[in-house]
Design brief:
By secondary structure, the protein is of the alpha+beta class. It is built from eleven helices and 14 strands. The strands form three sheets. Strands 3-4-2-1-13-12 form a six-stranded mixed beta sheet, with helices on one face. Strands 5-6-7-8-10-9 form a six-stranded mixed beta sheet. Helix 3 packs across helix 4. It is globular.
Length: 329
């Protein structure tokens, strides 16, 4: 049974958190950075004038028993995709190995990051240290030139079961871009998988808890909820039931930007036709959305044998201004 973090963890130092595992930015493993295979060239999708937000489920990242079998190749491909895409914020899911994550951050100059089990995250170690610290974890990568971390915590602890032991990671950030500085909130989520009734009901319960929390906690701040929601937002992957996230979709205070991809029958995974990785904003954040910028980035066009070497999910991207809304070129 997991228990909340003790009072020491609750006395988190924000000054220490700002460092957030900024590790050696020199490439590891020799002149080629420890690559396994050729460098992958991925065209950039970020811009210098927008806040660029991505999410990506990196299938069993760093787990030698599951997911892609060549860990060094998965690492180098992930690094090249993130570096090439050139986005400011990455919400990551399914990170298993902390050392492998640290290697990833260390090979991404200009980025810092941390996982939900980091000692700097309130409640993090208490809820993300199972299976001898080989639990699937959510985390955050960010450009240090654009983003400063103000605080981080694991939330909705009472709904741990409904979130499959992976309660959301909430990060409070200060963003500085184009002379504008704003504080925002990013919630990285990895919901319960699978297309059976019990799993579906847990997603329904988790969505209800999340909405109650965001409704009550954030009335004016800009909020993003990103990650692997493991279900679609039109109808559920289970038996064509109502979407577990219909409570957000039907509430005019929220916009699921990826609903446009659902409506266009875009898939966010390698093997299935559904859109199960999503980006959602409240009204304050949605007002800064760059129209038409949300996309599933099909990096399998650049990464050889992507589904077997890198992940079974594709990165999902969306862009925002820190001022008035804009339109994607």
């Amino acid at each position: 049974m997991k228990v909340p973090a003790n009072s020491v963890a609750l006395a988190l130092s924000l000054a220490a958190l700002a460092a957030c595992r900024v590790v050696d930015e020199r490439p590891h493993g020799g002149p080629d950075g420890g690559r396994s295979g050729p460098v992958v060239s991925v065209p950039p999708r970020g811009t210098a004038t927008t806040l660029d937000i991505a999410s990506w489920n990196l299938e069993w990242f760093g787990d030698t028993a599951h997911g892609p079998s060549v860990e060094a190749l998965q690492l180098s491909n992930a690094r090249d995709v993130i570096a090439g895409t050139d986005f400011d914020i990455w919400g990551l899911e399914e990170i298993v190995s902390t050392p492998q994550f640290d290697s990833l951050v260390g090979q991404l100059p200009g980025y810092a990051g941390f996982l939900a089990n980091d000692s700097l995250v309130v409640n993090g170690a208490a809820f993300y240290s199972d299976f001898d610290n080989l639990e699937q974890k959510v985390g955050l990568l960010y450009k240090t030139s654009v983003v400063t971390v103000l605080g981080a915590s694991v939330i909705l602890l009472q709904s741990n079961f409904d979130f499959a032991g992976r309660p959301p990671l909430e990060i409070k950030l200060r963003t500085s871009l184009g002379g504008s500085t704003q504080d925002i909130v990013v919630i990285v989520m990895h919901s319960k998988c699978c297309s059976d009734m019990a799993s579906y009901q847990r997603r329904v319960n988790a969505s209800s808890a999340l909405k109650a929390y965001v409704d009550a906690t954030y009335s004016t701040q800009k909020v993003w909820v990103i990650g692997d929601w493991n279900d679609d937002v039109d109808i559920s992957i289970f038996d064509e039931q109502p979407s577990p996230y219909a409570n957000f979709v039907t509430d005019g205070r929220y916009t699921v930007q990826t609903q446009a991809l659902t409506n266009a029958h875009v898939a966010s995974t390698v093997s299935f036709s559904d859109m199960i990785d999503h980006h959602m904003n409240n009204n304050e954040a949605a007002a800064t959305y760059v129209a038409g910028s949300v996309e599933v980035y099909r990096v399998d066009a650049f990464v050889a044998n992507y589904g077997s070497t890198t992940s079974d999910h594709f990165p999902v991207l969306s862009r925002y201004t820190l001022g008035p809304a804009a339109t994607a070129p």
